[in-house]
Amino acid sequence: MAEAVKTIKAADAALKVIEDWGVDHIFGYPGGSFDDVMNALYDRKDTMKFVQVRHEEAGALAAAAESKLTGKLAVTMGSAGPGAVHLLNGLYDAKHDHTPVLALVAQVPQARMNIDFFQAIDEGPIFDDVAVFNRTATTAEGLPRLIDTAIRQAYKYNGVSVVIIPKNLGWTEIKDNFISTAKNHLAPLYPQPDSVAIDKAVELIKAAKKPIVYFGVGAKKAGAELKAVSEKFKLPLVSTVIAKGIVEDTYPAYMGSTGRPAGKSGTELGFNTDLILWVGNDSPFSIFLFNPRAKVIQIDTDNEKLGKRHNIDLPILADAKTALAALVAKGDELEPTPFYRAALANHKDERAWQASFENDKSEPLRPEPVFAAINKYADDDAVFGIDVGNVNINVMRLLDLKTTQKWTTSGQYATMGYGLPAAVGAKVAFPDRQVFSLSGDGGFAMMSQELLTAAKYNLKTINIVFSNETLGFIEAEQRDDTHQPLSGVDLPDNDWAKVAEGMNVKGYTIRTFDDIDKVFKAAVAADGPVLIDVKLTHEMPMTTQHMFIDPAWQDADKIKEFVTKYQAEDLKPFSAYLKDAEAGKL
Question: Which listed residue, of 110, 275, 554, 585, carries a Cα 20 to 30 Å from 486's Cα?
């Protein structure tokens, strides 16, 4: 007589599939429509942890951040109706930064669907735009296979998969005989670079007078190869914002990023280059940041991206690491050009100029002394969750990332409120590593309730709020771009340390230069989450969007105004460095 197959509730079977794929926690918030899944989480509490955030948006943001940091699937959940809608913002972040996330979404029981029942909405259409895979379960027996399919799709397309689960299905007993496909999951194989294209690329680089590398997160595993290409062919390295950290910030040929959040040297190179080795990036702003007449060699694994952001002269369909290694293996080492020598000197002087403010005792504080402390006290494997706004500008210029550290921000979607949920996701993913969140007071206020999550689970995170009482990034756009009266950007002063204390998180306030070191010493020694409220100057970080510094072609009055505003007396335009290099002075 055949042995009877054991049964299991469908919701428990769904969690078993998720566990098979290596996930051991879910971010979310309970609701009556998800009682079936909450019961399954209780049943499987030894193998699946439920991380109870304060808001579903924070759960989705935490999952997106975790996935970006680990490269693996992360999972979030929301109840029917309002809980489902709350997920959307975090899921859009995952969509725009191309990272695999699974969202479990509750629905009212099937018998109550489509009849104007309590909290019932037509959930499928609201996820159509954000998801690469969006399905509603129709049978309890099919739920485990649906979850398995959703995970495969999230990995295949590096995006969001949504599975909507009517409440009655999760409670239904089904046969416990489904075997997931997790063991069959393999990393994708990319085409080898065409040898003829590699030869052509080397010839283009050799013929160029002002070549650079512009790389994105598609080069995240190719840091060593980027440096090797730079050193062999004497190419300055410029990255997209979210590719910061692939090459350490202290590497002499790494110029940082380009554009508004970036530093001076990377921005200047973009407009002076005559050839770009464009590696694994899809930055939407790149059309504004480079000489439109520059020749382009583009390396990418996705042929849809070839030529998407800039006219290109040579496409190479291959993985960044493999293609760059193939370039290094070809041709002879080149001598440093005047352009290369000028780029390195410009960047070295820019970093020295920034460092000159690290002991500045102005009140409210400049950002440089605070970031000097972060660089000092951050562990070599620290993880950073970075919010959106002026904090991105300061992070790009002042946070010296090591390749052993990790960081995440809301890149292409750029949603405020990202920093604190990202730190929650980071600490859950990396419980033994030091985790920071860095936020402006505007972004922090949006998700500040997640301090309660950090306190509930005693997540030892160091949460820094830069309080300058303005939406600084928007203020700069209104003032510098549209030249309009400031409107709606002012923020009330707030005692964030007191707020933190009310949420059972240790709070500190930094007002003076002398406060900085003692507060950071206490924060890194704490045995639980802490918040540091830094009272920061209202003055904007240096702008590279409207940089007036070159007397050869810019208005003298505007240069004087710019230099005075940003204390930029020690900065020279790139053209001056290039002139010195061409004269043999560098």
Answer: 554
